[in-house]
Amino acid sequence: MMGLLKKRKFNDMKKHLIFLGPPGAGKGTQAKRLEENFGFEHISTGELLRNEIKSGTSLGREISDIIKKGELVSDDVIIEIIKKYLTFEIVKKGFVLDGFPRTVAQAEKLDLIVKQLDFNIDVVLYVEIDENTAINRISNRRVCSKCGAIYHLEYNPPKIEGVCDKCGGSLYQREDDKESTVRNRFEVYINQTFPLVQYYSQRELLVNIDGTKTPDGIFNDIIAALK
Question: Which of 21, 29, 45, 216 is deepest in the core (most CB within 10 A)?
């Protein structure tokens, strides 16, 4: 019965989503909750790029240098990765794009891609926070080097400093989570990504979400918007 209930709720929802918002808005956290609770495929461009970096290819090294500076990866690289992923069978049931598009030019190319694949973007969720909140959330984030578990030194600290509760792996701060990089990322967001708010608002796809609420409060607002 629970499976049928969850499936019915999912079928009532809009299924092709974009998350917008500055670094630290919690887009990734909320996208994962949609994935776990309703089966949306979470497409994180950040994760796709990190996987490319781990592969050790020349493209991965190029991406690593760009991210360390807090700059944006070129449109051509991002779009090629996204286009390939959107052709996978698994995304047809519903997906959340997290971290893409980041510019109006990318949004226009995404419009062409989804048209070619014969579906539409249903809703764009804009999670709002200010710069100070973004810096606090990101610069205090730590990641497990083994299992990838994420901690926050203030809100969700590990039981033992520098050690993962789940697997005992060592915790580290990603280069793109350092305060100086976060400030630069926020400035880049304001200059290049914020115009997307107007772009999707004009298409009547934008829904504003208060990112300063608790994770549960944000999630409830998202579910209400998708229904």
Answer: 21
In the residue annotation, 102 being an active-site residue is answered as yes
Contact by Cβ (8 Å): 13, 24: no
Structurally, how many domains does the chain consist of?
Answer: 1
Amino acid at 185: R
Q: What is the pLDDT of residues 15-67, one digit of tens each?
A: 899 999 998 898 888 988 998 888 888 888 878 888 888 888 888 888 888 87
Q: Which of 27, 33, 137, 142 is catalytic?
A: 27
Q: Of 33, 137, 141, 142, which one is the catalytic site residue? A: 141
Which residue range is the domain that position 118 belongs to?
2-226
- What is the β-pairing status of strands 41-44 and 141-144? unpaired
Q: How many Cβ atoms from other residues are within 10 Å of residue 191's Cβ?
A: 10
Could you give the C-alpha distances from 12 to 9, 223, 224, in angstroms and in order?
A: 5, 11, 11
Can you point out the beta strands (E) in the chain? Answer: 16-20, 41-44, 95-98, 123-128, 141-144, 150-152, 171-172, 206-210
Q: Which of 92, 109, 174, 183 is catalytic?
A: 174
CATH of the domain at 90: 3.40.50.300
CA distance 33 to 114: 24
Of residues 15, 33, 50, 102, which has the active-site annotation?
102
pLDDT tens by residue, 145-176: 999 898 999 889 999 999 999 999 999 999 88
Q: Which residue has the tokens 């976060």?
A: 182
